[in-house]
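Recall that a protein's primary structure is simply its ordered list of amino acids. Everything else, from secondary elements to tertiary packing, is in principle encoded there. The following example makes that idea concrete.
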Amino acid sequence: MPPKKLPYSDFFDETLTRDVEELLSRFQGADSVRYSDFSLIWREMRFADVFLGICRSGEAKSFTRVSLATAMKYFLPPYSFQIRVGGLYLMFGFYHTQLVVPPVNIRLALKDITAVQKFLVDSLDAGHYDIVYIYEKLVAARAFHYTAMPHHLHFQKQKKPKKDPVCSSFLGRTSAVHDLLSLDLLEELSNVHIHYTKLKESTVEVGSSVNMSQRDLVPPLEKCMKEFVTWQQKTFSQGQNDQNTDDEGDEKQEKKKKRQSKAESSSRVSLLQSIKQKSFQNLPVASKSRRHRQTQVVDSPGSGAEQVPEGRKKWQRPPSLRARTWKSLGVPEEETKTQAWLLSAPEEWESRRLRGTSKRQHADA
């Protein structure tokens, strides 16, 4: 009996991904990167029970590998800083609550090490020491397995592999424009521009001949930044809605294709059945007394080709070599009942009998 197919693929599980996104959305709503806030949400959702109920060790190991890969996905770019922190805490929780012995390691590809180091440097600069502490705890427990690829290499893949959807609300947005608007940089830029204009006007020689800057630089710059922020918010919200509508449209298209394939298969089957019925209806059936006979085509000048039953022929001995030789030489063969090969037999038998008797007489003497 073949083994039962697992309900999840090699890289991710849809139901687990939905639960992980629910946990990270709650952590994002808390507007914090502290581990204490994450652990509170973890205990409320009873996330430590995801590994319970798996009896077979092979299936438990595969599900643990998928869980760690899902957490690693949210720890890497292009997600925002807070979601990446939640992915790190999620890896820490999955690794220490798994039931596999020895524990399954976390696969960290070599191409992602640079992004992880930059993330740790940014956390240290921002003073988030609990993030660095959790990462160092995983390193001390030898939880990371540094590999060339993020997943195992398989040569037999599905024709249409499942695609892991990306949650648009977790993606990191460009925050440089927000920093310019939130800080007093525009006011400082305005003061510098006014000072430059005054110095230029005080110099009579170059006051009117040189134009190196635009007049009223700050108001159009502030207008452009506000337009960009508005466009960014509208694009992200529209992208999330489009993703939901695309998912619904894909499901409808798949259902439509299945219906069309079923209709085509049923029409094909009905066509084949009708062809078979017609072919068997037109087949001539012979009578029982003529079924064992073979048909032979006989050409006649009057009636054309006719099928005449032919019975069994009597087997005839082929002509001998002597008859064939005489026939080729043109010598007529004499009709005689005497068999030619028996004419010299009596003389041979007589000579053999005489030699046998003479031998016996010498022996008696």
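DSSP finds eleven helices and four strands in the chain. The CA atoms of residues 12 and 70 lie 6 Å apart.
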